TrEMBL record:
Protein name in UniProt: Succinyl-CoA synthetase, alpha subunit
EC class (word): ligase
Keyword Metal-binding: no
UniProt cross-references to InterPro entries, sorted A to Z: CoA-bd, CoA_lig_alpha, NAD(P)-bd_dom_sf, Succ_CoA_lig_flav_dom, Succinyl-CoA_synth-like
TM region(s), chain numbering: none
Listed Pfam families: CoA_binding, Succ_CoA_lig
Chain ranges of the Succinyl-CoA synthetase-like flavodoxin domain: 119-260
Keyword Ligase: yes
Molecular function per GO: nucleotide binding; succinate-CoA ligase (ADP-forming) activity; succinate-CoA ligase (GDP-forming) activity
Entry's EC annotation: 6.2.1.5
Keyword tags: Ligase, Nucleotide-binding
Source organism of this protein record: Rubidibacter lacunae KORDI 51-2
Lineage of the organism: Bacteria, Bacillati, Cyanobacteriota, Cyanophyceae, Oscillatoriophycideae
UniProt domain CoA-binding: residue ranges: 1-71
PANTHER family xref list: SUCCINATE--COA LIGASE [ADP_GDP-FORMING] SUBUNIT ALPHA, MITOCHONDRIAL, SUCCINYL-COA LIGASE SUBUNIT ALPHA
Amino acid sequence: MRAYGTQVVAGVRSGWGGADGSTTPTFDLVEQAVAHAGDIDLSLIFVEPYRVLDAGLEAIASGIHQLAIATCGVPPLDIVRLLRQAEGTNTTVFGPGSAGILVPGKVLLGIHEPQFFQPGSLGILSCSDALTAGVAQLLGRAGYGQSIVVSLGSEAIAGTSYEPWLEVLERDPNTEAILLVGQAGSGDEVAAADFIASDVGKPVFAYLAGLSLPPTRHNRATPHLTRSGADDSSTANKLAALSRAGVHCAPNMDRLPEIVRNILSQSPIQPAIPCDEAALSSD
């Protein structure tokens, strides 16, 4: 993140406060980090799943109102408790299983791999970080860069949903089209479809993995049972709801650039800026 220009002001690890060997000062407690650095915009949480609740509550108690939880496999009841506290303190939680936020060429708050992304006008909202980089790279090669990439989290219970970010991107002058990236068992694309049908006027595309999952399958990226075709968490039902809302859905990743190109051909969005040119323009 520091190489991308993000100000990483402190790290927290119990028992490692004051440790040498890093350009980032390390503290035992979040409140010590805040006392040292002042206001902190976001806490990026990498701890073990059973420590996420304590880490999140400590960050909120210290006045940090944006949390990005990169850890997967957090106990569901812990996430519920954390989200209740976040709701009462006006705190935004990305994740679990979130890579954070990326504005290509400008801002990196999280663990996205920026070499796969290019500046452009396509906003990506993702509930599957395993797919996001590949999708962005494929579209970038076709000439469609990204205005912003928001990782909502890859697990069934997540801190933020599609709807508020769809509203943000609908109003964003730098975003001319929106792409949803998801998978079976995570994200609520059915609720997103209702919102898109009533409140989104920009073109919306979707690629959801898992269409060929058997009726019962454990998804390794989301540690819970998914039942393909049995409920709203199945990819088939999600795609059906999105299609009814006017979303342009790709049956597989390879078809996505073609579908985007066909829909936007009469109103093309801003082309992607090559990586070397983007680096020059951000200096």
